[in-house]
Amino acid sequence: MGADMVDWYARAEVARDVIRISEPHVNELVSANFWWLRGNDRDVVVDAGLGVVALREAIPGLFERDPMVLLTHAHLDHVGGAPEFGDRAAHSAEAGLLAAGVPASLYGAELYDKLGIDAAGEPVPELMIDTLPGPGYDPATYRVEPLTLNRLLGDGDRIDLGGRVLTVLHLPGHTPGSIALLEERTGTLYSGDVVYDSALIDNLPNSDVAAYRRSMEFLADLDVSVVHPGHGHSFDRTRLRQLAQTYLRGRAGVVPSPTRRCPDGT
Length: 266
Fold this sequence. Notes:
The chain has helices at residues 55-58, 76-79, 95-100, 108-115, 209-220, 237-250, and strands at 10-15, 18-22, 34-38, 43-46, 68-71, 87-91, 151-153, 158-160, 165-170, 179-183, 188-192, 226-229. The protein is built from six helices and twelve strands.
């Protein structure tokens, strides 16, 4: 990395062979975690960040064992770096949007418009990053390239890394193809944007409140030891149950509007 380049990614080992990667210079709306898991036979990376800075340049060790990237859903803050990986997987309901190109911008007003976000009178940031990653970087050039998947995931699918097996949980609501990944041996859940310790987003154009409620009912009873989410800090089963129940209470009696369809027809 050049002397004038910003150290864009923060890394922390949160468990044996589990590394959290985050982007501290990104606005909290799209500042996501992604997770590097090392198995005996191969590695996987759960989500891939915004893609503002090339992962191969910033974290070359990430690619030494030809990892598979597992995308929890098709939003820019989780798939921006995915085109760098040769082996890519996501739920089938997200495949069409990924192939078409995920809506993306580093300009706040443009991004809110593309995602269908109502700012509800709150100030919209001019830029979604608080510094440029290097001299001469032009935020207007940022985009998420269309990508095809090597593997379409469904509920109950298993990904074996050797000594570490992840089970796919299809938990729609935030998006039609939102998934979480459960390592049953350790009770570790990689939850993407299905659940994290903050206000959950269920009002995007392809969100579905009724589906989200069913997903939360499932999570409220799920036996886990720790949740590693797509945003914010990790938490335990007690907090997971609290978050699920809070969502269910807050959405009690809500009649969702008809679900708008994704570009892929889901």
